[in-house]
Amino acid sequence: MTTRRTILVIDDDPAMRDSLAFLLDVNGFAVMTYETATDFLDHFASSTVDCIVSDIRMPGMSGLELVRKLKADAAACPVILMTGHGDVALAVEAMKAGAVDFIEKPFEDETLLRAIGEALRTQSAVPADGSARREAEARLVDLSPRERDVLRGLVAGKINKVIAHDLGISPRTVEVYRANLMAKTNVRSMSELMRIAIAAGL
């Protein structure tokens, strides 16, 4: 029998914690839940956790602060952040700090399971120095200069309206560019696009 991978859920909403614990349990994971990042850090042993799924906005320490703390402590455990619609800029900042992914609430069960699967795969197959950047740059090679401008705005955490104002185009045109970015880089989510852009050094 294979050892069950341990996923740790941190969320101050009890209903969300219970629902995620149930979802992960029925999909074959061992689950531990905590109400706050501080509770978790008080009991943390990195060897017992394969992946952390944390809300980004919590009382006390935020998900972003948790990512920075784990990185400072050289903990190798991947962190996936759950974010409200208005927290995307914060989530992008957290990815730059070391989070492996973010998913926007509300999300489908499959979205979370896919993100966890990807995080566990990435953790067990860390690429050689420089290859991740080259691979990311290759996926951005077909972008037009204006598409790159829009992507830089997204990486900076700006909303469509602000990007449109900065570039002197309409918000609707920004939406078209965003769709082009997703298609050209062959990604399924904004977090995947952000991960590629950050890896490429944008």
Q: Quote the distance from N terminus to C terminus.
A: 44 Å
Radius of gyration: 17 Å
Percentage beta strand: 5-15%
Overall structural class, as computed from helix and strand content, comes to alpha/beta
| Spans of at least 5 consecutive residues with low confidence | none
How is the biggest beta sheet arranged?
5 strands, parallel
Q: How many helical stretches?
A: 10
The total beta strand count reads 5
Shape: globular
Helix content: 40-55%
Strand order of the largest sheet: 2-1-3-4-5
Q: What's the order of the H and E elements?
A: EHEHEHEHEHHHHHH
The residue-averaged pLDDT reads 87
Report on this model:
- With 202 residues, the protein is an alpha/beta fold.
- Helix content is 54%, strand content 12%.
- The chain has a five-stranded parallel sheet, with helices on both faces.
- Helix 4 links the parallel strand 4 and strand 5.
- The longest helix is centred in the middle third of the chain and has 16 residues, at 109-124.
- The N and C termini lie far apart (44 Å).
- 29% of the residues are buried.
Supply the key terms.
202 residues; alpha/beta; 5-stranded parallel β-sheet; 5 strands; 54% helix
Question: Brief overview, please?
Answer:
With 202 residues, this protein is of the alpha/beta class.
Topology:
Layout: E1 6-10, H1 14-26, E2 30-34, H2 37-42, E3 51-55, H3 63-72, E4 79-83, H4 88-97, E5 101-104, H5 109-124, H6 131-140, H7 145-155, H8 160-167, H9 171-185, H10 190-199
Helix pairs in contact: 3-4, 7-8, 7-9, 8-9
